[in-house]
Amino acid sequence: MLPEDCVSTILSFTSPLDVCRSSAVSSTFSSAAESDGVWERFLPSDYHQLLLRLVKTTTNSDFYTKKELYFHLCNPLLLDGGTKSFKIEKSSGKKSYLLSARELLITWGDEPMYWSWKHVKESRFAEVVELRTISWLEIHGKIRTKMLSSNTTYSAYLVINISNRAYGLDTAPFEISVNVGNRQVSYGTVCVSGYDKNKMQEKIMKQTLKTTPFVEEKKNVIISERNDGWVEIKLGEFFTGENDDEEVKMSLTETKGYHLKAGLVIEGIEVRPNIKH
Known about the structure:
By secondary structure, the chain is α+β, with helices and mostly antiparallel strands. It contains 6 helices and 16 strands. A hairpin with a 4-residue loop joins strand 1 (77-79) and strand 2 (84-88).
């Protein structure tokens, strides 16, 4: 018996997933669930600026409703000249970014002797970078918390593949870390062992991950295969505050082994919210 606009207001304080489920309750709920007022609240607060940053510029006028715009942003979209990919998580509206290899700080990344930049059809970006040979490996990515959703736990992943000419990647462990401001919030080591390029599902990572102020140890973690043809290494987790604007630095390094390694193909670093299932 509630007025439809009242139902819309109530729904706007839930989640996108709840709204879609509630639309089956009655015709009133179904109509209220289509309201622009509901879906406006689920869109990122800076969505106007994000639309202008897209490689193919999109405006509000390109969509009849805010719901259409919301679900458009649930698909990976290139922005900032194609150096980043952005989307929102469908069930929560939380922001997610994939920083391309060109956005990363890779030691000697512009030296053709050590790294090779190329296009591969499996990547959404114009270029990825392949390690030709090197003994000192450093890969760093940066993002500011204000670009992300507030009060959210995020995980950072290095998105990679391994080429057929790979060697030396399992000789010494990689160090992985996440820093927020001047605080190290996650640290660990990881190494690839028993890699079978024809059976991605059997790739095993031996990993020890420490998260401050508590210590967690995880061993024999299976490397995650993605649905886009790549695999990912989890670098760590961090939490965004209410109105914080701090720099998040995510890293994978190997600088102690002094042995040559090759064949690591890097697409980028993805920062995405942890989703509860």
